[in-house]
Amino acid sequence: MGFQSGSIAVVGKPNVGKSTLVNELIGQKLSITSHRPQTTRHRINAIDTQANYQMVFVDTPGIHIGNNKAINSYMNRAASSSFNDVDMIIWIVEIFKWTKEDARVMEHLNKVDIPVILCINKIDKLESADKMFPFLETLNEKFKATEVFPLSAFERKDTQKLRKLILKYLPEQDAIYDEDYITDRSQKFVISEFIREKLMRNLSNELPYDITVEIEKLELDGKMYRIAARIFVDKASQKSIVIGQNGGMLKKIGMESRLSIEGFLDAKVFLELWVKVRQGWSDDKRALASLGYD
Ligand SMILES: Nc1nc2c(ncn2[C@@H]2O[C@H](COP(=O)(O)OP(=O)(O)OP(=O)(O)O)[C@@H](O)[C@H]2O)c(=O)[nH]1
Ligand SMILES: [Mg+2]
């Protein structure tokens, strides 16, 4: 067998563990995750190059129903467009959590003609493995997947097995990306996402997910990066939540963001954060485009 290479879209409804699985598969934190649905907003390619293969995982926003804001249609489009231009698909369903949104994803899958690995995630939540069989059976009646693979995205031995399964279907062809690439996205993009992750994790219940981050400065100063980022919120009340009492929340978000950016850039970082109100950005196509949602 020669060199194998291909792209694998990771799809599913929100919050099933797509981004967690992608990070585990490439062995590096690249895509942001949180316990809130609709964390991922943009497609991102995560690339794993080994001696005999290259896997390009396409992490996608969760496909969802029930909101007609411009940003929601943007996210659904970003996800569904990836069904067509990849070599195979990993479809994630959470164990025991089948909903209308899973059925929506299945409608897209019914139209494709490439291998689909159906991953049943979060099985670490089960007390015993045999509890999952009835659920697997009903799924099997709904959809004939190429492979069905129950796993926990947190379990290294599971993700290693999944990698072997992917290799079974990965086409024999040259690498798509140079071996030193880990993503198709810019440094600025990844950094802005890391900051958004800390916002989502720290402000989960108080804040709608209408928040976005723009990097205004990214400069290498000797061995240190100087970064300035602006956080856009929809309302003045949200701005005070992000800043927190005596600026405490913004400070915490800044500190956590800096640590994860330092891990990504492998260098010291000086990070400045600003908060700005930009009313209605999430339902305004022009504002969306200016913030990178195009
Ligand atoms: N118990 C358990 N939790 C998991 C597992 N995989 C992911 N999670 C958790 O599920 C939540 C959602 O994970 P994400 O990876 O952000 O999910 P996603 O599908 O990318 O979500 P969206 O980007 O919003 O569509 C996080 O709190 C994860 O820690 C798993 O195998 N077991
Ligand atoms: Mg995600």
TrEMBL record:
Residues 195-279 form the KH type-2 domain. Belongs to the TRAFAC class TrmE-Era-EngA-EngB-Septin-like GTPase superfamily. Era GTPase family. An essential GTPase that binds both GDP and GTP, with rapid nucleotide exchange. Plays a role in 16S rRNA processing and 30S ribosomal subunit biogenesis and possibly also in cell cycle regulation and energy metabolism. This is GTPase Era. It is a peripheral membrane protein. The keyword Nucleotide-binding applies. It is found in: Cytoplasm; Cell membrane. Pfam families: KH_2, MMR_HSR1. It comes from Candidatus Pseudothioglobus singularis PS1. Residues 59-62 are annotated as: G3.
